[in-house]
Amino acid sequence: MTSTLMIVQIILALAITISVLLQKSSSIGLGAYSGSNETLFGAKGPMGFLAKVTFTLGLLFVLNTLVLSYLYTKGSNKSVADTITSSIPATPQMPKSEAPAAPAAVPSQSDAGSAPVAPKPATH
Q: Is residue 48 in a domain?
């Protein structure tokens, strides 16, 4: 399916290129060769017709691009990063002799919200 759409994409790209080159511009370009077609397309000449064809081909090109991108992302759920293999461990391993000491006791959340209690004065 994607190979058929890819062939259609190439044909659409070529058709858009040809339709743009056939249009008259401020410089003559390839539009000079379409002068004999003016009687076939009416009083306006081929410009209205070629503009509509170019717009239609452009719209088909964009839609085909969207369908191709959807099919490619649906077909591959893996990322390129998934294929990378590394000899470096994800987390560095420390030797047991250099292991850090256990962390000091952390007050629990129930103690953290209460105010510190002052020691009672000693009586003699």
A: yes
Amino acid at 57: L
Number of domains in the chain: 1
> Residues 67, 8: contact at Cβ < 8 Å?
no
Mean per-residue pLDDT over the chain, rounded: 74
Read off the pLDDT of residues 13-53 as tens digits, 9 standing for 90 and up.
999 999 988 887 655 555 555 554 445 555 555 568 888 89
Residues 6+ apart with CB under 8 A from 54: 16, 19, 20, 23
Q: Are 7 and 15 in contact (CB under 8 A)?
A: no
Half-sphere exposure (Cβ direction) of 110: Cα atoms closer than 13 Å? 0
Q: What is the pTM of this model?
A: 0.48
